[in-house]
Amino acid sequence: MVIKIIIVSAVWCPACLIMHSRYDEIKKLFPHFEYIDYDYDLDEDLIASYNVGTTLPVLIVLNNNQEVTRIIGEKTIEQIKAILECL
Questions:
Q1: Statement: residue 85 has pLDDT above 90
Q2: Alpha-carbon distances, residue 78 vs 26, 29, 35, 72 (angstroms)
Q3: What are the CA-CA distances from residue 61 to residues 14, 28, 86 (Å)?
Q4: Bridge partner residues of 59 (DSSP)
Q5: What dihedral do alpha carbons 7, 81, 33, 17 form, nearest 10°?
Q6: Which residue(s) pair with 4 in the sheet?
Q7: pTM above 0.85?
């Protein structure tokens, strides 16, 4: 089982700025997952296949390259942790 976490955010997004430190904490709590950070504007071609939409930030969880869940918008560390612990 290979869990990959795709994080899409933007420098102009207030919720993304808030979530940045929370994502850093999640990365420490779940170091065995692979994390890829994308910028909504700079990595437009790379995120096109994920159908990100316009509400940011977006955290997409892939298991063996198949999407299993996505978290959109500002969430607490506890909310994210509860979702990731179920994997």
A1: yes
A2: 9, 11, 19, 15
A3: 22, 16, 12
A4: 7, 71
A5: 30
A6: 34, 62
A7: yes
CATH level 2 (architecture), domain 3-85: 3-Layer(aba) Sandwich (3.40)
Q: What's the residue count for the chain?
A: 87
The arithmetic mean of pLDDT across residues 30-41, rounded, is: 97
Distance in angstroms (rounded) separating the CA atoms of residues 58 and 77:
14
What does the pLDDT read at residue 87? 86
Summarised one tens digit per residue, pLDDT across range 38-52 is: 999 999 999 999 999
Amino acid at residue number 78: E
Instruction: Return the biggest CA–CA distance within the chain.
Output: 35
Residues 23, 4: Cα–Cα separation, whole Å: 14
Domain map of the chain by residue range?
Answer: 3-85
